[in-house]
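Quick sanity check, 5-formyltetrahydrofolate cyclo-ligase:
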Amino acid sequence: MLKKDLRKKYKELRSKLTPEELDDKSMAIANRLLQLDIWELTYFHLFLTIEEQKEVDTEFILQILAGKDKEIVVAKSNFETREMTHYLLTDNTKFRKNEYHIYEPVDGIEVPVSKIDVVFVPLLAYDTKGNRVGYGKGFYDNFLSKCKPDVVKIGLSFFEPEALIEDVFLSDIRLDYCVTPMTVYDFR
C-alpha cells in the first residue's frame, strides 16, 4: 500500500480504539519493551503522546525509564524548519501544548543528538522490513539521520506490520525494532 492510504487506514483503526483498549495496549507495549537488550544504555528519547491522535500512551514507558534512572530526552518541534530541539526531562521541565496538540518543553537543558542512545519513534504504520509511515512531515527521518549510526530506533504500534510500504524514499530511516502489545519485531 501507499503511505497516504496507510495513513488513512491506521488513523481509522486507531479512532475505533476505546480508552480502555488504549490503556491496556499501551501498558502491554511498555512491558514488552523490557525484553529488549537496551537497558544498559543511558539516553532515551521519548515522544509525548498526542491524545487526540490516539497514539500509544508513553506515560508507561516514562515510568519504566524513570524507575531505571535513565536520562529521558523530549523534543520541541519547529514546523517552519522541520527540525527538533531535544531537551533533558527534569523535575523543573515545563510543558505547553502546541497547535498540533503536542506537549513540548518550553525550555531546558539542551541535549545534542550525538548523546542519544535509543529513540522511541511514533508511527501510524510499518512494514515487515522496518519501514514506517508517520504523519508525513519528515521530522523523525530528519532527526534520525543526524543521530549516531548505532542509535537504537524502536517503533511503537498497536497493530501488526503491513507486508510492504510501496513508496519508501531513500531518505526514510528504517526501524531496528517495532513493539506491539503482542510481539517484538526485530528488523536488524
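Posting the structure with no commentary besides this: The chain has one domain: 3-186.
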